[in-house]
Amino acid sequence: MSSSDATVLVVDATGSHLAQFAAAAARLPEGVRVAARSRDDLAGPGALDACVALAAEAAALILLPMGGSASIPGRDRLVAALAGRPVHVHAGLSSADEQGFAQAVCADFGSPAYLRRQAYLRRGGADNLAALMQQLLRDGGRDLPAPPPPAERPTEGIHHPAWTGGHDTDAYLAWARARLGADAPVLGLWFHHNAWANADLAPYDALIAEIEAQGGIPLPVFHVRFPDADLGNLTGAALVERFFKRRGRAVIDALLSPMSFSLARAGMDAEAMFAALDVPVLQLVVASSSAAAWEASAQGLSPVDVSMQVAQPEFDGAILGGVVATRELGAPDAATGARAVRREPVEERVRGLVAWAMNWVRLRRTPPAARKVAILFHHYPPKNHRLGCAFGLDSFASVVAMLERLKAEGYSVARDYADGDALAFDLLSRLTNDRRFLPPAEMARRAAARVPGERVARWADALPEAPRAEMARAWGPPPGVAFCHGGEALIGGVVNGNVFIGMQPSRVREAGEGEALDLPDGGLIHDPHLPPTHHYLAYYRWLREDFGAHAVVHVGMHGTLEWLPGKAVGLSGACYPEAILADLPNLYPYIVDNPGEGTQAKRRARALILDHMIPAQMGAGLAEPVQEIADLIERAGLAAQEDPAKVAMLAAEIRARAAAAHLDVPEGDDAAVLEALHDRITELATTAVADGLHVFGSPPQGARFNRTLAQFARLPNGGTPSLWEAIAAANRVGEAEALAQAEAAFAELDARGWDAATVAAVTAERFGGSARVRAALAFVAEVARPKLVQTTDELESFARGLAGRYVPPGGSGAPTRGSLDALPTGRNFYSVDPARIPTREAWTVGVAQGDALVARYRADHGRYPEQVGMVLWAGPTMRTRGDDVAEILYLIGVRPVWEAGSGRILGVEPIPLAERAFPRLDVTVRASGLLRDAFPNLMGLIDAATRMVAALDEPPEVNPLARNVAVDAAELVRAGVPPEEAARRARFRVFSDRPGTYGAGVNHLLESGEWRTVDDIAAV
Question: Can you tell me whether residue 902 is helix, strand or coil?
Fold first, then answer.
């Protein structure tokens, strides 16, 4: 076949390679042309049809997907248009979907020819890409010269615009220190090899220049993210050893990582690698949207960006910084027709995030004796009895423990506290956020510091235009009136050596001193769009600039900073959490079983989470009236054997007492009722409840330790059986007795030792040698108990974080709910990958929940439900990996489609009616603001499921959702809404707060009492 008039069509999902394909076009034999398109080029009207027509005339097709084959618009049409001509799909090694697609459409998939073409692509560069296209045409029968073999190019190395000395770290650092100073801090920067191969380096060059402008030395290294046997690139650990360490010690003070994906999730021991490096790993984001779209977006980042560049790096212990660059489209290329795709830095974000990174370095390099730390309690609502509120944490005793640890580390702590009460009373004797009973002069006397109004005004003037104007509209000119006296802003708290102990300032101006709750514009202070006060800004600026804090510690769940207005994730400098906190490192002790709200702090307040244990646990026991019922049930059981005539009398009394105690009394004969009430009372008695509050860094003390341990063993953990169930089966006892026997066994093991031989002996003596009991006890001995002892790691990680060292990642969830993999605490917890929710396990649970819901409704009402309302919260979604989401999908009548291998959700598909026990239901979902931010993909998934089911042609009795959508659409059309818009509105089933807001503010309005009618509530 002749080579003349041969066109190679390249479709690149991301557009990252197109500039190099354009350069490669000039290296091709005469008559061979390149036509290229990115996904963006195919988005306009008729663009995909035109590309398919182009494919029909092309001699060969190259597809470069990213994140699955669906990332190529019209993939099947494009392949079909080639009609047997050669197609090459560059399939990612970790994507089963892409591999499967490549195998289906590449006639020579897996052959030496295919692998050779892959090698050209993996090595990159214009020469290799020209050879790739030439080889593909030859493989398709074109008479072209054989291209050279794939040219070897560096798979990793040092990139600096002014450095030409190669890839040796020692030589580079000697050059850099001669330019920038021998003692200048070194910031490692690693980035994707593709950016170097495709000369798409503007974001990294901007970071390099800014690091140098702020007095640091950049050590920029490009590399291939994951090991590739064909390329022979360095593993992550080997790369760290070669470029970032010398003689076993780090030569860098922090690592900036604008990298996607997780090393840990790819099978590498990221925790060990980063622990050996022992510097903060600071995650930066190169957004997949344009700067204009990012600026305008209330969400900030797309779901794909959140998954790949936020959620996944959290598995490696990275601390999220924010967006440093965006993806921009240029004019069409003359050679290929594709619009150039380039990454461009966001200058304001680059400056701010480098300053934040430099402050982590400053924290690391400052000796403990000179290091200054601000420790802030939460104080909301601002009443003195709420000072130090933190869910599950004894915050005052915890801060005393922190102060003791800081003093032991060499920090300047001038005053010791005997206990948490002493600290609490010290703070209460000073200025707090509760000013109800203090005249302004007394407030000023009690203040730790007073800031002149003109200084507050300068701080406000330095804000970006939008927050500056919004704060002025809400609160008047700075310094405002909240916590001001004599024109000065008042700072509450106490300076204790180099430690400031205070409380997070009040989110808004509260009622008091005759001030009305209404703002000048008539809006309520509970409006979730409302900006913080001038005093809020002044408090944090005073900590940073006047007190000179190197870091701030927010004590316990949860404060207000991370909930201030702004983008959901990927914040700009105009978003309030960024504007307020600025570049201060933020450490955040947070309860381990609430990743939903902790993740908000991680992603909107750049927090290094230091997770802490839940409070000590115990069985709830029974209130006296319920205990009396339990005693009567026991007497009835004895009477059934010894004096049956009395059973009816006792049963009648039990029914009456149960009704009076508001216990559900089931229908049935006496025996069934007594058995059901016995089970319910046992469940109540053994339910885990908190036994006091947790003290940071301290495992449960005394008998609380074993009671907590017993609650941890209640449910199965992985493949380990429930200890309670195992004991109940072995000794034929109920759940309450099984709990008592578990605690007794723990006490005996405490006395005799927890070694394997003793565990086996106790199992034989107490539980008949049960293999299940032995396995469960062995798990307690080898896993659960040591992890609970390791609660002391919380203070270790606190000290490490404040020394600018690496804090390892850890899971999150409720240890009492089978999530012992979340222990030990003291970790920078991660949540979940949004793209993998719901998991297969969650689907199993969700189906069971859906069946139970429908069965209960049918039992109560004699028919199937048709409309169901459900509330989705981020916390439970994270803890369960999507049980509730799975239930919603199941009720609607669809099931997830998981990608093989990765477990990512590709979409949903209808469940055939033959497989369902009840109709497809009409489900309306109310999602929390945090779920909206953390899991926009789930809202989209449920919406897609709703639209899919609404479009099915099925009888209304089996598809009430489709029936209701049709009825609603018809009503809207009758009301004058155009048919297409009416159909769209009729399908709405997923609702949430307005973007950038968290909660409608109704709860705050109700608490304030400042409402009179339902209309007042509706107006919020």
Answer: coil
